Amino acid sequence: MRDPARILVVDDVADNVEILRTRLESLGYEIVVAEDGEQALAVAREALPDLILLDIMMPKIDGLEVVRRLKADATLPFIPVVLVTAKANPKDVIAGLDAGGDDYLTKPVDHGALVARVRAMLRIKSLHDEVQALNRGLETKVAEQVDELERVNRLRRFLAPQLAQAIVSAGDEKILDNHRRDIVALFCDLRGFTSFAETAEPEDIMALLAEYHGAIGPLIRKYEGTLDRFTGDGMLVFFNDPLPCPDAPERAAKLAIEMRDAVATLGQAWTRRGHRLGFGIGMAQGFATLGRIGFEDRFDYTAIGAVINLAARLCSEAADGQVLVSGRLASAAEAVAEVEALGEREIRGMARPVAVANLGGLKPAP
Length: 366
What we know:
Helix content: 40-55%
Radius of gyration: 38 Å
Structural class: alpha/beta
CATH superfamily of the largest domain: Nucleotide cyclase, GGDEF domain
Largest sheet: 8 strands, mixed
CATH class of the largest domain: Alpha Beta
Order of helices and strands: EHEHEHEHEHHEHHEEHEEHEHEE
Shape: rod-shaped
């Protein structure tokens, strides 16, 4: 509500208008006037007063019809209306309040009653405006929170939850635009899955994949890896993107070993059910181009480059329970894991022989 409050006085008798104007202006209020019902509607829409003192008996449109139209106009804010009537007939008062009036005064208007009614109605107007402002603030906040949840849900499709939340909190998704970065890529898949899928029932395949994903998914979240995609039994995870990760080799090594151990435990249960499946991992470190791909309704975040191909080829070369890593990554992972150099190997799809190492168990914590 403005300060000073603006009051619209509506009466077809000029003397009545002057009396109310003089009394109210002496109290510091801003006064606007209208001489009949039609003018009252026009002035109310233009001036947006904080309170209206409205005579009931007027030519053209009487006060009851004016207040009905004002209260029915959804474009107007809440404006309290005090009906001013020369009659003390209860039926007239009831009709006025039923039409939408908020209070009433009888003529001749008592000064004390006028001041009390005006102050009471303006307090109601002020409280109403405060509540409306609070509601608008809450609506804006809720809309912002809904938008944030939607952004988090989009990002959580391929990021660890804490990374998705960090990006949303920063308020900037430019980090997901195409860029080049040094990453550690981890490929893993099940040995013998193709043969298993050719003979097993679809329900058994889905149940086994659910167990498999349920075992290694939490580990990916634990080490804050970025999950690129599922390819049936295969999976690509990378580190150091979209947020920097200074200990990417160490995290990747720890994740690989824990994944290997988790799937080995699952493999024992699968063997008892007649499913002979193994698990292999390939990892490499190098530069890749990363960013969003897809279309408006379906985006993915992916990495493209030779390092991804090398990790995939090493995964194919790995035996059951083996973690093969490129030479550069092996050197970086030595801080946390036992590393066995295997020398240079010809890797399908690679132009030159690649230095390869086998990742053993984790070293004891210092």
